[in-house]
Amino acid sequence: MKAPCFALAALLLPSLAATAPTPPLVTQDADLPVVAVGEHERATMEPRLADLTWLAGMWKGSDGQSDWESCYTSPEGGQVVGASKEMRGGRVVMTDFEHFYEKDGELRMTPFPFGNRSVEFTLTSFDADARKAVFENPEHDFPKSFVYHRTGETTLSIVLEGDMGGQEARFVLEFEKQG
Q: How far is 173 from 156, CA to CA, in rounded Å?
């Protein structure tokens, strides 16, 4: 189901889809790197972006109040791009874009809630066997962390944790792989 994934990204990010040249993806923000890393450089990096292959695909889930669709590309070309939408009552109420990349020898992720660039999160914990990656930015309010965990062959959990109004908050999304 690769076509719906790219169609969803194009719907959520029309300006990016309309202006993006052929691979590699080039964004309009000069601070986001387009990474072309050679194999000799990859040998010294652990973990690598390629280790997030388990995230790729189209995912659907519900948190009890909203229905969610999320799509993540493969790490081919040196980046993973994600697009998500939240729906309530058959209407889209939120969109988000995620950009995963390597920078300064570390894996990073920058979310774009409602299409607006947020702060950068750095990979702080990774378990290849458990297919679990934790990206954190302790200076941010909510979320301070994103936990991506492939909990089964067709299941993915994304947990956001941080401070909301001075209180600890936790938001859990459970997804099933489509196709």
A: 8
Question: Left (φ > 0), alpha (ψ -120 to 50) or beta: where does 78 sit?
Answer: left
Average pLDDT over every residue of 68-88: 97
Beta bridge partners of 145: 136, 161
Residue 169 backbone class (left: φ over 0; alpha: ψ -120 to 50; beta: rest): beta
Other CB atoms within a 10 A radius of the CB of residue 144 amount to 18
pLDDT confidence of residue 7: 41
Buried b (16+ CB within 10 A) or exposed e, 60-90: ebeeeeeebbbbbbbbeebbbbbbbbbeeee
Sign of CA dihedral 130, 81, 75, 135: negative
Computed over every residue of the chain, the mean pLDDT equals 83
Give the pTM.
0.76
Tokens of 175: 């997804």
Cβ-in-10-Å burial (0-12, 13-18, 19+) of 55 comes to buried
Highest CATH level, class, for 2-18+47-178 = mainly beta
Residue 151 CB neighbours (<10 A): 13
